[in-house]
Amino acid sequence: VWDNCLQTIRHSVDPQSYQTWFVPIRPVALNSNELTIQVPHRLFYEFLEEHYIDVLKLSLQHALGTAGRLQYRIKTARQENGQAPSTSKTPRGHQSPPPSNPFVIPGMTRPRIESNLDGKYTFDNFIEGDCNSLARNAAKAVADNPSNTAFNPLVIHGPVGLGKTHLLKAVGNRITEKYPNKSVLYVTTDTFTSQLVSSIGNNSTNDLVNWYQNVDVLLVDDIQQLINRKKTQDVFFNLFNVLRQNQKAIVMTCDRPIIELDIEERLRSRFQWGLTADLSAPALETRMAILASKASANQVDMSPQVMEFICYHIQNNIRQLEGVLNNLVLHRGVNNNKEIDLELARQVLKNFVTEINKEITPEVIQRTVAEYYNLDVEKLASATRRRHVVLARQISMFLVKQFTDQSLKGIGRLFGGRDHATVIYSIKTVKDLMETNDDIRKDLEDLERRIRAGHGEGS
Ligand code: ADP
Ligand code: MG
């Protein structure tokens, strides 16, 4: 029966894949319409499930009719040593299924193993901004041409919630689409570690490593999880070398720059052979664009004012931004689909940020202006006389005067101890500019709106 299946399969896949993924399979039992096949290890099974499930089903239908069922059995170290095969042996470790339950495909209805690469994360739904353009372009370059070794390995690093995993999976998804014959594997460092641990318990580390060596594109998420894992580092070091020698693409992510990654030096230096690109916190505009895109993907309508209010408060973590959006949708649901307004947004945000200012304070104004002009807020109180800083400083003073009851002297103090005359001059300068300079007037309108939105007062 299996030979029969193989015939079908051979016609459906390319010779290389056939050789790699089907020749090693052994038929071990046939009970009425249920065929049991043995695969070398669990990852092999997962790969088959991921990439060849349809081919397998089809071949089975040919050989056994529509009632045909397929069972998997994982080959174990003991069997290799010539001992009795056992259906109950699967690799140990928390990744493994219950030992007494060999993997089963009952006809067509078996629930799929969650795939490593869900199609959800793509370049199309990754919003570009200054904070991510290098990383995004590098990732795209690898995805478009994985055999280009200039970027090998590519390491994307940055704090949590800024899109590392998204980009990594986008690489995988694009390669899968563009190069269907290339085998792409996404794995987190934790998963790799537990696979390694079970393979050690099982004497199949070689199998594991060999299996990984068949991969054309290896995507490893969160390599900071290598820290304090000496054995994983060793095995990964060897794997890395083989893959790179064979010009297989490697893309990794890390929550910190590689130089700060406390791992073996030889590994760290190799990680720096290719390209490293960082993701940093997105500016307000980028956050707005991301929120707008996620909102429209979820068919949520929100006014720009509400979006600004949200983005103003969630600054460093896009995952949180999504959390707010999801919460808004839930709240809207229980509130008879009433419109998402500032009040609702304020309610939801309370669960995400500790402080939603009630009052417009000078600090808030300074922060808003600094962010708007992309400056460190400290610059506003510094002695710098660089033109764009001076302008931002003058505008901040103007706005503080307008929004708070600070005295001129008090304002001077807030901006690095400037005197009363300087404050008066600054405010007058801004007033004049508003008359004569359309850009500045527009900036001020934007800023006022943001400052108000930041406080839920509306405009
Ligand atoms: P990380 O791996 O860096 O912790 P993720 O990749 O999991 O972060 O990103 C968190 C969430 O934010 C994901 O749902 C992702 O889609 C989203 N996200 C991050 N950056 C962007 C972006 N530039 N455009 C669209 N979505 C983004
Ligand atoms: Mg991640």
TrEMBL record:
One of its GO terms (cellular component) is cytoplasm. It is found in: Cytoplasm. Residues 116-332 are annotated as: Domain III, AAA+ region. CDD domains: AAA, Bac_DnaA_C. Residues 1-76 are annotated as: Domain I, interacts with DnaA modulators. Gene3D superfamilies: 1.10.1750.10, 1.10.8.60, 3.30.300.180, P-loop containing nucleotide triphosphate hydrolases. Its main location: cytoplasm. Residues 361-430 form the Chromosomal replication initiator DnaA C-terminal domain. Oligomerizes as a right-handed, spiral filament on DNA at oriC. Belongs to the DnaA family. Domain I is involved in oligomerization and binding regulators, domain II is flexibile and of varying length in different bacteria, domain III forms the AAA+ region, while domain IV binds dsDNA. This is Chromosomal replication initiator protein DnaA. It comes from Neolewinella xylanilytica. The lineage of its organism: Bacteria, Pseudomonadati, Bacteroidota, Saprospiria, Saprospirales. The gene is dnaA.
